[in-house]
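Folds abound. Consider this:
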Amino acid sequence: MLEVEDLHVYYGEIHALKGISLRVAQGEIVALLGNNGAGKTTTLKTISGLLRPRTGRVLLEGRPIHDLVAHQIVARGVAHSPEGRKIFNRLTVSENLEMGAYLRSDAAIRQDMDRIFELFPRLRERRQQTAGTLSGGEQQMLAMGRALMARPRILLLDEPSMGLAPILVEQIFETVADINRQGTTILLVEQNAAIALSVAHRGYVLETGSIALTGAAAELSEHPEVQRAYLGEAA
């Protein structure tokens, strides 16, 4: 479904991604793991059109999208729930969700908003509340819901557990699994490697802009280097 081929991305003279190649098949959850600065968020930003690669390609169902601007990529079926949530603080919950559907003119927008409220009942309770007054967990739910309002075929999900209490992290990842079961493919960047691998089908480990390891999620969970570096276990 999604293919990234030999992607090189720079910030000025800093070589951030050094030949990244990965794939995400339809129906999968694929996890991107790595320490801060490894290139995980840069990878998602490049796929969603927020950054331009110097060389390399991004293909969606065999068609290049790396030369498109961000809203055109959303229209092709790629939605991005960014690190730090980036909600519209002064808009209500409902207005934020409507912004997620800004490219749509079909009659199912209200139906899809009801689906978001089923996934995240807390948002239904706060639908007229200003988004900036929500808790961190509620803001994360809203960021994910806003992305889903675009009806994406693939959801790019960046650090959904950041800053959340453990019980909320569990709730968020139960919902991630539900979203996937309902048919949305997911490329997941997550600092909590254990919980990411518990829901993912496959994973990639990035180190300083390059892919160091790849494999099935269960295999990566048992890999000594992954256990030592990301799971807090002795190799």
